[in-house]
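Data deposition worksheet. Section B asks for the primary sequence of the deposited chain exactly as it was used as input, without tags or linkers unless they were present during the calculation. Section C holds the resulting structure in token form. Section D is free text for depositor observations; keep each observation to a single sentence. Incomplete worksheets are returned to the depositor.
Section A, Depositor: J.P.
Section B:
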Amino acid sequence: MTHAERIARLRLIRTPNIGPVSWHQLMQRFGSGEAALEALPDLAVRGGGKLRLAPAEVAEREIARVAALGARHVFCDDGGYSPLLREVEAAPPVLIVRRDTAMLERPCVAIVGARNASAIACRFARQLAADLAARGVTVVSGLARGVDTAAHVGAMGGNTVGVIASGIDIAFPPENAALQDRIGTDQLLVAEQPPGTEPLARHFPARNRIIAGMAHGTVVIEAAPKSGSLITARRAGDYGREVMAVPGSPLDPRAQGCNLLIREGATLIQTVDDVLEAVGPIDARMAREPRQAFAAPAAAEPMGEGDRAAVANLLGPTPVAIDEIVRQSGRPAAAVQLVLLELELAGRLERHAGARISLL
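Section C:
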């Protein structure tokens, strides 16, 4: 990939109104970041708005800053990108990483749980992570307080991946600064956000999808019913990965989320052998695919104003499945996706989990 193409791809994802799904659609439609950049203004106009492209200088400065931090950008079709994460529909177009991405090609298991975890939960997480690492499994977690921290510490004798919700130069929580630096020096540290980005609330669900996407399975150790750990587990289930949970006392609110997952069909985990038995069949099915290659530019579908109106009129403030829009509009799926892309680039469309969309 040329330097100009890397700059173009980075400009795309740093442009407002372009998220991971629309980034991938643009790349598939036009075949390169440079071609997509040229087409963007016209697409936004057809969607009824204007688009403010991220300047090339912004991308250049980011690349220089990342290099100065001892990190690098890895695009979704680069060799160092997680082969499992690449299969996720909303996979990050680019990640910023420090150190060894080769560990992502080994079996990976995510361990997540409560930030205010009990002492016994932290002990279990630390021991489970150590046992998995000793068996050659890469342990993935989010560098949060409690269970995440214990999992990273336990896996230090093998391989562990820390996925953070901030820029790669910002430690959160602050007390994990030394651990985060150690992971970035000896293991693998991963961030989706550009350097200098504070860990805002909206970044954590995005971080959680990366954790779930990188792993063959996710183990939850203590979690409240509406916690971020359960979001990670449900994402894992959506991706067809194994969901595992450690049972706890019904009298402990921190165990309610895990017990709920088990009731809903998650695998009950008590030992490292339970984890390996659960992810073993999945590991066999998830053999690494060749690197993704973006398609050659696709021919533009003939779209008139009547077609656009037929799609736009079916949308409203309530999220609806894209498949339902295709069915009710009677238009080809590719044509509907093009209209939705135009609306998103114009700032009129919002994407939601489960391939649902709504008008802003």
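Section D:
Residues 112 and 220 are 5 Å apart (CA to CA).
The mean pLDDT is 92.
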